[in-house]
Every structure is written in structure tokens, then in C-alpha cells.
Amino acid sequence: MPxxxxxxxxxxxxxAMIDADIVQVAAIEAQQHSVPWxxxxxxxxxxxxxxxxxxxxxxxxxxxxxxxxxxxxxxxxLTLTVRPDSTGQGLGKQLMQELLHQARQRGASNLxxxxxxxxxxxxxxxxxxxxxxxxxxxxYYPVPANPVLKSLAGRENALVMCRALAEHL
Length: 169
Known about the structure:
Helix content is 26%, strand content 34%. The protein is built from four helices and seven strands. The longest helix is centred in the middle third of the chain and has 15 residues, at 91-105.
């Protein structure tokens, strides 16, 4: 296993994703997701005005990203991903804190998200950040053949979680 990188939070920046970031973002997506978004999907997200943020180091390398959209007075997290060699360093939490801040500034009342039932690391992070499970979408996510996951017909449940944005942690 490669050594774990340690990051100085003062040297990291989070800002709006731009077209030039898409190649790095799509590469991270392909590494981290069994059914990844395409580069075209990320370009479409930018063009549709969704809220796309990237976390970068001082060498302009994307370490993580998140995308959300506003629906009425709610915000919905569509994806939040950290580069595989950068996990376990609190970068996902930094991205989520930024998303919470930005969503509050846009006047959102709640932040909703869906997460694979098997993604216990993400579920733990979301619970630490005040999210509560509000529902389940049965057989929501496609799953490649994997005997470890006990989903029906190649699908996995999604947990729906929500956090009121008036809450501060």
C-alpha cells in the first residue's frame, strides 16, 4: 500500500470547477465509481449551472470535487468524491463544509443526498455532519457483478439523507 499523504489545509483551495478541471475530475470519477459519470456529464453539469466545486493542491491537482443543484428551497448533493490516494485526510469533510456554506448562502433550507447502502465511510461522514436518514430507494444504483454485495438483480439500495441547513456543527 502506498504511503498516506498528509495535507496542510492552508495549502488547499476549493473553488468553482472550470472546463480545464474536467479531465482530472473524470479520471478520479473513473477510479472511484463502478458506474462513473463521463467527462461529457461533468461538462453538462457546468453548462446547466449546477454548483460544481473542486478541491486542489498548490500544484493545481484536483484532489476532490462535489456537485450539487438547487431544487426549490432545497439543495441536492449529486456527487462528492476524493481521489483514491487522498482519502482518509478529511478532504471529503472539507468539501462538504464548503457545500453546506454555499447552500446556506443560496438560501437553501435543507441539503439532501443519496448514498449507496454499502458506502459506510460516506454514511459515517454524513452522520458526523448532522445528516439523518429520511428514506431508502430500493435497487436504485446499478452494481457490477459482485458476490459481496447482497443486492437484488445487480442493483443496490440508496439511503436518502437530509440535513437542515439552519443547523451549524
